[in-house]
């Protein structure tokens, strides 16, 4: 009985894990098949492996190159993450270490902006961008992605900074350390893992974003998810290419997410779950 | 609360205005907050105000000269529009189904993963993966690789056992969208609930067991009450994201076959139909709906948050 109780949950967990992963595994396998084998019915598990799908995706056999889209996504995600950190760090400091009055109200204001649906402001942003000549401009996305992630970042970082013991900060101040020294020598080392997690989550959300990018970019500033929408109506002839594209574009997020599983939970729950 | 004791420099008392030193210090405390605050107001609140204004105009982008003030006409039109009302229903159904099912599945998985077994770390990694696939890529995966009636994996596996070969997306469109979203969001729920499970007090469980409580009793009387806040948090964060879902609906069905939710409908009414006024009115209504969720959501978060603050 106790042996059953010990092994059954483990077996079930393995079964569930495999089940959830199966679509991704199948996508990976398909990406290494030739288009004919990929579209075979019934599915072939033993077909010869080839890099054809990847060659097609990277435009090596003609067709659109994904590089501009990948570079745009990288620029937009990295730049907005940097901007988020620049704005959120001082704000979080003012909300956790050196508390302003009514700091909880300010925190809730930030959270409430996250609950404002994107579609509610999309049209004016589009009209503004069109009139200002900013359509199809990657820097407009940088600003919008910053606004999308700033509330999350402020919440996360205030919870990470609040973990720095106030006594330590005050001791350093009493010893006459100026603010920049306190920040770099005392606060930063303790809060650094949290800051890294914040940056990671902002990067992931920016990398994944579709609606803004779809409406506000076209040719020049197209991002990777917008590039992927080109495959929405593809027929079976491009299955291996679709799989290769989906995997390559998901790779940065998959890698980052696997590397920081624990911090990811804490960040995604706005630091409320530890 | 620690705020009053730890921040002697902040918050000059309201009864003593004018002391230049304290006012200066108050500003010094506030200053680091201002860039973020101003940025958020400008980038998120101003466009919404503009949406509000546009929603009172009859304005088709193709006929910009015919733009005129129509009061609440757009709202009347939006509220009586059968398609739009259907998309409200779709949004509620989609969000509720996905959040509830992924919460229950996530709970079951979290309970399994809370136990020790060989390869637990690897299983956890396998389970998280769906959440880490770029949403458009995940939607493409379901549309082409799994659902396709001719070469999709689902029908491929069915054909081995001689099963039927349904065209999933056209026969059960909403279910097809929901299944793909549940696959993506279950890992997220699992992660949060697993963190909840692991923050239980082992001594309390030990004590209950000594008193003769069985697995089920421990689960109902100790685990579930402890998990309540984590369940609420998962439901709330999931709802915020799924109410706004665009990627799955856009990719899998392009809003066809009765799967158009509000974000997709708003997108379509200005991006394809160029009806700026109508789209704005619909957008404002989405916001009103979100405020209902948000009020509940903020209460959940603030109760979690108060706990956190009082513990600190």
UniProtKB/TrEMBL annotation, chain B:
It is found in: Cell membrane. The keyword Transmembrane helix applies. It is a multi-pass membrane protein. Residues 1-20 are annotated as: Disordered. PROSITE patterns: ABC_TM1. InterPro entries: MetI-like (IPR000515), MetI-like_sf (IPR035906). Its main location: membrane. Pfam families: BPD_transp_1. Signal peptide: none annotated. Keywords: Cell membrane, Membrane, Transmembrane, Transmembrane helix, Transport. The chain crosses the membrane at residues 33-57, 92-113, 125-145, 174-197, 277-301. Coiled coil: none annotated. One of its GO terms (cellular component) is plasma membrane. It comes from the Bacteria. Residues 88-297 form the ABC transmembrane type-1 domain. GO terms for biological process: transmembrane transport. Belongs to the binding-protein-dependent transport system permease family. This is Sugar ABC transporter permease.
